Amino acid sequence: MNEVLAWLLFFFILIALLVMIVFQLMCLADLEFDYINPYDSASRINKVVLPEFITQGVLCFLFLVTGHWFMSLLCVPYLYYNVKLYNQRQHLVDVTEIFNLLNWEKKERLFKLGYIILLLFMCLFWMIYNALEDDGHSI
Amino acid sequence: MGPENPNRPNYPLRPAATPFASQQSSTPFSSSGPAVGSEAPVFRPGPPAASNFQAPPFAGGPLVGTEIPAFRPPPSIRPGEVVRPPPPPSYGPPTSGFQRFPNPPMSSAGQVPPPHISLTGQPVIAPPTRPPPGPASPFSHPQPPLVSMGSPPQSIKTGQPNPNIPPPADQRFSTPIPRPSSQPSSPPTGTSYPAGRGTYPGYANMQPNSVSQAPPMPPASFQMQQGGYGPPMQSSFPLQRGYAPQAPPTSLLAQQRGYAPVPPVSTSSGLYSGNQFQQHGIAPAHQGLAEDFSSLSLGSVPGSYDAGLDITALPRPLDGDVEPKSYADMYPMNCDSRFLRLTTSGIPNSQSLASRWHLSIGAVVCPLAETPPGEEVPIVNFATTGIIRCRRCRTYVNPYVAFTDNGRKWRCNICSLLNDVPSDYFAHVDASGRRVDLDQRPELIKGSVEFIAPAEYMVRPPMPPLYFFLIDVSISAVKSGMLEVMSQTIKSCLDSLPGSTRTQIGFITYDSTIHFYNMKSSLAQPQMMVVSDLDDIFVPLPDDLLVNLSESRSVVEAFLDSLPSMFQENMNVEAAFGPALRAAFLVMSQLGGKLLIFQNSLPSLGAGLLKLRGDDIRVYGTDKEHTLRLPEDPFYKQMAADFTKYQIAVNVYAFSDKYTDIATLGTLAKYTGGQVYYYPNFLASIHKEKLKHELTRDLTRETAWEAVMRIRCGKGVRFTSYHGNFMLRSTDLLALPAVDCDKAYAAQLSLEETLLTTQTVYFQVALLYTSSSGERRIRVHTAAAPVVTDLGEMYRLADTGAIISLFSRLAIEKTLSSKLEEARNSVQHRIVKALREYRNLYAVQHRLSGRMIYPESLKFLPLYGLALCKSLPLRGGYSDVQLDERSAAAYTMMALPVKSLLKLLYPNLVRVDECLVKNEEFDTKKRLPLTVESLDTRGLYIFDDGFRFVIWFGKALSPDITKNLVGEDFATDFSKVSLSQRDNPMSRKIMEILNQCRKSDPSYFQLCHLVRQGDQPREGFFLLTSLVEDQIGGANGYADWMVLLFRQVQQNA
Questions:
Q1: CB distance B667–A89 less than 8 Å?
Q2: Greatest CA separation found in chain B?
Q3: β-strand B347-348 against B776-788: which pairing, if any?
Q4: How much is the mean pLDDT over chain B?
């Protein structure tokens, strides 16, 4: 039963990550179509960048602690990339250059999005698998 | 010329020409013979050797025959020609002769080769006359130029190939010169030749190559030439150049692409014939003949000397920036090129074509460029109707909109939408589709107009001009005298600040604390308030820190008077720059305006403090090199973004004798549309005039406030990136808190659709701003550019100045993300790719071995590219330029208008000693190539790059002159001597010359540096490193650079 609960937790964390990334993408898209000015866009994005990084780190850590080393391993490249950006102080969007970097910022986040969705499906699979297994035992 | 030009624009015509071209293509040279048909044969028989020469014209005549009567006259000439030919030796000379012939015919045929002519100058006159004298003279004319250029000299020198030739050559030489002016025929050639003439001196050098080439060529070239020449060539010329009129229209068509008329010639080869000849001898000048391209002979030709190329024959922009005239003539209603320049006026019609153009398609915009008196931009007030704009794309009404439906509708030229004409704006349309009230509507006849914007163009009431000063008063500022010069200058400018009674002004000074000044008009003396809490900056007074100048004038003056003495005893070495910047922001954020920062040392306290990251030599050459040129602390970028948001423009004046991290401070100016002024080692005794002039100009020039700029363009193309000092507010909207005439912006565009179906693409630059008088205005520049289907046409319409301006910005941006080396390589690669693509256009039809070919329009591109690689931001490595100077130059070049940039890259070098001694009129036109060889030890030279003068005293210069100019102590160290007016005619004269130079370029003050020959390292520092044609450090000299480019062009060609 614990397994199922753990997977449920991972699932919600992943959903949270997903929401944060989609939010950033929306801000960038709004900026591109001129619904929002670069100052607001950059400050909104920058507000969620660190939470995103931290959530992702926590997720990776939880995977490890709960013994799901394979899932943890899958998270490592993402984590490494985030840490690298942070160390180079490039994790925040630069408001002055935002238009020149727009395409790159979007591409980066789309990749992250794909990555998270992949994790999400694996998480779902394990959750259901565990749940069914539990059922089997109970019978 | 005028008439001709029109022809060019008519691309449609081309088709007709094309037929020829096609023929040509199939029959390169040999084909020409056939084309000529019976005639050609005739020629040959007639005048054996000589006949050949003459013949060509004839032959051409026949071909052209029906087409161009004018040509025939030349036949009559034949006799004369024959005489010349004596040197049947034929090939070498003949060819040349032919070429020339063709030209003459052309000239006669094509009335005027305007564009070319303009270059040389001579040709222009001739054209008109040609027709009459044409026949006889044409031959002679044409021949001389060509021959002289190439083969004759060669032959002489080498002596090998054509013994006969020499004499003829000489004759021709002499003849040609006189003729050009007198005869019209020559003009055509002249146009193309202009370069050639210039090259004459170089012949000797060239000759070897040419000769070697010539031998093989003769037979083939001959025929070809003949065929082509006679008529074809002529026709082709006109076309290309615009001569077309005379030549059959068809020829025009052909020319564009390939000069159709002459089979051989017509195809790309049009040039060919020319080229071939050119090959022989003339290095640069070739274009004349063929027109399509210019070429340079390089040593690699088999049999030629290894020496290769003739240095004197290399193209040099000694006339300064030459704008392509043909384009302006094509679209007379376009805005002036001082406002908008396209890198190529021919917009490619497909993405595949665009991808073969490696020079970036783009534009350089200088929206507020200074206009000469009489050409001011007209101001239009649409008070009653509202500004007429397209409903869909928001384009402003302009001369290219079409009125239809009897004047009730107008069609937008950019998006083709049919708009209603407001009833107040209605006017009837006459039979030709023109509005009857055209002459009262400047917006419908002028490419540049200014609309007065109604309230819907304002988000707040127009702001007053506002100047705020943030002044460093630490010990170095006081000691260097900066404070005093600055206070005096500001005080002297108070009367001429724009905005009359609305102008606002304010001051903050700082060292380790921040000092505010209450300037309330009721006070007699300003009140100073000191804030020492740097972590939590607050403004001690809500009002009165920023006051109306006219009301508080006396307080402001009292403040400026006392400022230097107030801090006389200040021993504080700290600079709380970051907090002071915040304080200034708090004070200004209500209104916006212009913030002038006077910074003397590295920010050392509070937010935004900067480390002495220095110029670490170990970092150079590594992947981290570029980080030195990037802003170190994000604080400054964030501040810059906030400044722009609140319409504050920042100008940074930096004076330190030590490292001040201009790379970081400059971002403030970069993103706010400002500018960086850098005075390393500022000393009032030396730099006073410079600071005074530049600060005065900054304060008093006409400034546009709280501006935004957008460039619209027709369907299918889109501006994708912008380069310069500004911040983007949305994908295509440039935020410019303050703009003035010294700022230019570059943009690159790309094709969105795979195929453009329109004939013309329109561009419209709109700058919405608040004028100093408090009016909201929109300045609109409109330009049209033809869509072309052919790469050669794009090259023909290229504008070197705009290309270089764009390149320099791209290269400087590249230095921010990679090594200097890579930035230089990127410039070189682009030039090589462009030349290689160009070569591929013609390589099939022409024998190009050993020659470097380039379009006439881009003949200076390699040189400017070289100069760019040697400019301060890109030059060398660690030891060549100080990091701060590099950054300051980079920020400056990012904003420089085209003309100033070109002057900075290829400065003027003029000799003045003769002029001083004889007290003659000073002629700025006599510019010299920038190489050490231009410097005569007996001479006195002025080197002027728009930012400084270097006056070079030759070793053997008469001591009299030196004495007169610098006084009795002329033997002492020049670094301690400054040039000032003395009481003798020579000194007065030179000051007059210097002032004359300064007046022509008032954007910056050119400080004089005196340099004596052999006085190292001073001479090297000031002058030798700036002689871009010489080998400096590890960089190439001009000749080596050309050889290098040539080799690279040939690789994988």
A1: no
A2: 102
A3: parallel
A4: 74
Nearest in space to B922 (alpha carbons), one of B932, B934, B908, B933: B908
Q: Provide CB contacts within 8 A for B579, sequence distance 6+.
A: B510, B514, B534, B535, B537, B605, B606, B607, B608
Mean pLDDT value of segment B999-1007: 88
Comparing CA positions, the residue from B657, B660, B651 lying closest to residue B682 is B657
| Residue type, position B428, single letter | H
Question: pLDDT per residue over B948-1001, tens digit each?
Answer: 999 888 888 888 888 888 876 666 677 777 777 778 888 888 888 888 888 888
Strands (E), B60-149: none
On whether any CB of chain B is under 8 Å from the CB of A40, the answer is no
Residues A111, A115, A116, A120: what is their CA dihedral angle, to the nearest 10 degrees?
A: 150
A35 in contact with B, Cβ within 8 Å: no
pLDDT at B299: 52
- What is the structure's pLDDT at B1046? 87
Instruction: Tell me which of B624, B636, B730, B748 to substitute to probe the interface with A (most A C-beta atoms closer than 10 Å).
Output: B730
Measure in Å the smallest separation between the Cα of A89 and chain B Cα atoms.
9
What is the Cα–Cα distance from B10 to B252, expressed in whole angstroms? 9
**Count of C-beta atoms within a 10 Å radius of residue B545:** 23
| pTM of the predicted model over 0.90 | no
Q: Is A135 an 8 Å CB contact of chain B?
A: no
Helix or strand holding residue B486 (H, E): helix B482-493
Please determine, for residue B74, whether its predicted confidence score (pLDDT) is greater than 70: no
Give the whole-angstrom CA distance, residue B363 versus residue B700: 28
Per-residue pLDDT of chain A (139 residues; tens, 9 = 90+): 788 889 999 999 999 999 999 999 999 999 988 899 899 999 999 999 999 999 999 999 999 999 888 889 999 999 999 999 999 888 999 888 888 889 999 999 999 999 999 999 999 999 999 888 887 766 5
Task: Report the pLDDT value the prediction gives residue B292, as an integer from 0 to 100.
Answer: 63
Q: Which strand (E) or helix (H) includes residue A108?
A: helix A98-138
| Strand, coil or helix: B789 | coil
Dihedral over Cα of B390, B393, B396, B397: its sign: negative
- A38 vs B638: CB contact, 8 Å cut-off? no
Helix (H, G, I), strand (E, B) or coil at B927: coil
Tell me B350's DSSP state. Answer: B
Q: What is the mean pLDDT of chain A?
A: 91
Q: Residue B953 and residue B913: Cα distance in Å, rounded?
A: 9
- Pairing mode of beta strands B340-342, B362-365: antiparallel
Helix (H, G, I), strand (E, B) or coil at B919: coil
Q: Are strands B593-599 and B294-297 parallel, antiparallel or unpaired?
A: unpaired
Task: Give burial (CB, 10 Å; 0-12/13-18/19+) of B901.
Answer: buried
Candidates A34, A39, A94; nearest CB to B645? A39
- φ/ψ of B651, rounded to 5, equals -110, 125
Q: Give the torsion through C-alpha atoms of A6, A10, A12, A13, to 10 deg.
A: 140
Measure Cα distances from B1046 to A82, B278, B1043 in Å: 46, 17, 5
Reading the block at residue B172, the tokens are 């021709």
Q: Is A94 on the interface with B (CB under 8 A)?
A: yes
Residue B45 has pLDDT above 70, yes or no: no
Name beta bridge partners: B418: B411
Q: What is the pLDDT of residues B144-160, one digit of tens each?
A: 333 333 333 333 333 34
Non-local (6+) Cβ contacts of B287 within 8 A are: B116, B192, B193, B195, B271, B274, B278, B293, B294, B856, B859
Q: CA-CA distance, B268 to A24, in Å (whole number)?
A: 54
